[in-house]
Amino acid sequence: MHQESELKFVGDDGALSALRQSSAFLGFAGHRNASTVTRRATYFDSADHVLRRAGYVLRVRGEGNVQCQTLKKIGSGELVTRPEYKSEIAGTRPELSSIPDSRARWKVTHLLSGRPLEPIFEVDTRRTRVVLTPARNVELEAAIDTGEIRLARDTTRTLTISEVEFELVRGSMNDLLSTARVLTRGLPLTLSFLSKPERGFRLAADEALEPWRPSKISLRGAQTADDAMATIIGSCLKHLLNNHDAVVLGHRSEGIHQMRVALRKLRVAFSMLSAEQRAQQAVLIGEVKRVASELGACRDKEILLSEMTLPVARQLGREDEFVPLVQRMERAREETWRGALECLASDRFRALVLDLASITQQRPWLSNPSSHRDLEVDVRGFAAAQTGRRLKQCRKALKRARKLKASELHDLRIGLKKLRYTLEFFETVEERRASKVLLKRVSRLQDLLGEMNDVLVARPQLRAMIADSKASEEASAVSLAGGMLLGWHGRRYVTRRKRVRARLRSLARLKQIATSS
Predict the structure, then answer these.
(1) Average pLDDT over residues 78-91
(2) What is the pLDDT of residues 192-212, one digit of tens each?
(3) Considering the entire predicted model, what is its pTM?
(4) Are the C-beta atoms of residues 291 and 263 closer than 8 Å to each other?
(5) CA 138 → CA 131, 132, 164, 167, 174, distances in Å?
(6) Could you give the CA distance from residue 6 to residue 163 in angstroms, rounded to a whole number?
(7) Secondary structure (3-state) at 143
């Protein structure tokens, strides 16, 4: 088995050209010549993509005069490294018997259970390789790929490839990360964890620009809290970056939402560190908060228009009367979208995601042994401690929220959100039925409080739009539509407030569960 250690960055042709011509790239390459090859790889799976769902990809690719079959494990939980099993085969179709690792061979055969393999998509690439030596005893291979992903059964559906991979040949992970940082600094190249096969399968499922939702974080009971922290931060980072295309290329509002969720989860993850460890990462945590704020402004405008205004106008049958207000909302939304896209295209964002990737490998909390002791426990003990802490905070917030005041409900919503994310972090190591029931109840109450919060956020926005329109010819129309919305959602707020009271009672076991944690 070969273990790949690589970082990939995506950008347009201009960015790749600027990289090759940069002084850092030319200096690391020295007098070595680049080699360029053109290859076609075909990826196989069953019709229902059973291998992909299990985290495997199987390809056949011509390399010189031979056909090579490669099986990769893409769901291993590691951001930068992944196992692969490579073998030579006689033809252009997979030969499962040639998989060199017996466990991997049995697993793939078992997953397929007699299902026939068929070509799903092809990847045509023009790869330019250059060996880089940034320091003594450090060697990397830069592979600049351009080309196309094309479905096997519908060759008109394609995706463009324009990326560079830096693979570690000799040296440490720190060497790979620091070299990638130097080479990409100031260039419009963004870290990406979406491999070519992942993009190909998303294209096959018609999900190429759709928002990406993460699966459960895979933690093992034998892990230390240190390992768990790295895995959790890595999962949040993957959640963030795998929605990049949905936002930047697809302009999907749900993509913005998913990126915000990933950033909020990152902040909750960092809050599990000690005060001393958090202080060491204060700048990074501040950057996470800043990006979340930029995306939040866009998301608020989207909710106001798409979820709180247009459905009401349709339900009332008065779309024409809402047109002036809707047009103002659309202009406000476009402005915040520009801000969000500028944020994601900035050097600061690209530096942030690379810093987050570095943390998963370098684990800076290891630099201080005294502050690292909290992370030397096993993951189950760490999960119990973190969940217990959040439960106690929510118990206090629940007591304060009994009178259902807006400020108290806001504090409860934030507390429940942090508890929910903490429960989700440790879902695979926390098997107690009570915790699963708690997660379900917390999620329902948090969602309800979130709807109420949307109303509170919308009110000042609506009132500002009404006030701004007073000097215009549309003042009366904007005021009428805005007033109808305020009244409509005011009633919804009262109704949801009553439902909150009922759901608060459903969390009566919260104290008992917290005591047993």
Answers:
(1) 80
(2) 999 899 999 999 999 989 999
(3) 0.89
(4) yes
(5) 11, 8, 19, 11, 10
(6) 13
(7) strand
